[in-house]
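Project outcomes to date are best conveyed with an example. Our students and postdoctoral researchers have been running inverse folding experiments weekly, and each run begins with a structure described purely in C-alpha cells. The record below, which covers 114 residues, was selected by the lab manager from last quarter's runs and is presented without edits.
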C-alpha cells in the first residue's frame, strides 16, 4: 500500500518488485501524510496520484485506489485518465454505520401510542 511520503518517493523501486501485482493507494492515510487530509481534489494529492499512475504504467502494475468512496465526480478521472483498475467501493465499517443509521432512523420515526 502506498500510504506514506516515503512510499511515493520510492515508487519506482516499489513498482519494480517482482511478484507485486497491485500498488494500492490508501487515500486517507496518504492525504494526511501529504498535509491535505481528505482533500482528494487538492493539487498535491492529485499530482501524487499521477506519480503513482506513471510508475504503474511504466512497470506494468495494476493501480489500485482505496478510500475515495463517495466521490462519483472524482472516480472517472482516476479510472479513465490515471488507469486505476482496482478500486475499493467501501469498507465494512462504512456499511455497518450506514445500516445502523437506517435502523435508528426507523426506530426514531415510530410513534408511541401510550
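After processing, the design step wrote out the following sequence:
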Amino acid at each position: 500500500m502506498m500510504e506514506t511520503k516515503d512510499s511515493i518517493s520510492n515508487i519506482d523501486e516499489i513498482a519494480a518488485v517482482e511478484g507485486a501485482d497491485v500498488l494500492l493507494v490508501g487515500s486517507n492515510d496518504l492525504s494526511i501524510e501529504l498535509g491535505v487530509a481528505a482533500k482528494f481534489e487538492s493539487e498535491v494529492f492529485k499530482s501524487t496520484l499521477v506519480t503513482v499512475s506513471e510508475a504503474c504504467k511504466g512497470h506494468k502494475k495494476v493501480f489500485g485506489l482505496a478510500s475515495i468512496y463517495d466521490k462519483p465526480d472524482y472516480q472517472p478521472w482516476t479510472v479513465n485518465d490515471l488507469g486505476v483498475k482496482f478500486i475499493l467501493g467501501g469498507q465494512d465499517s462504512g456499511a455497518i454505520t450506514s445500516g445502523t443509521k437506517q435502523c435508528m432512523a426507523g426506530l426514531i420515526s415510530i410513534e408511541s401510542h401510550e
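Helices lie at 5-9, 11-15, 27-33, 43-58, 75-81, 92-108. The beta strands are 22-26, 62-66, 84-87. The training component of this project remains on track.
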